[in-house]
Amino acid sequence: xxxxxxxxxxxxxxxxxxxxxxxxxxxxxxxxxxxxxxxxxxxxxxxxxxxxxxxxxxxxxxxxx
Length: 65
Prior knowledge:
Blueprint: E1 2-3, H1 7-15, E2 28-29, E3 34-35, E4 56-57
Antiparallel strand pairs: 1-4, 2-3
């Protein structure tokens, strides 16, 4: 699911310490830089959101660590 990222989302992400990227997922293998289920990670990594124009992309299998 892709949603537009806006200033409100960025404020709430900081305020509530939202965790939704691969780096916060139990299925992410940081050593291999890959998902345990083989899903692509490019649009789900924290660095992707440095671009304020990037859409919000939620993973269907996100598991909070």
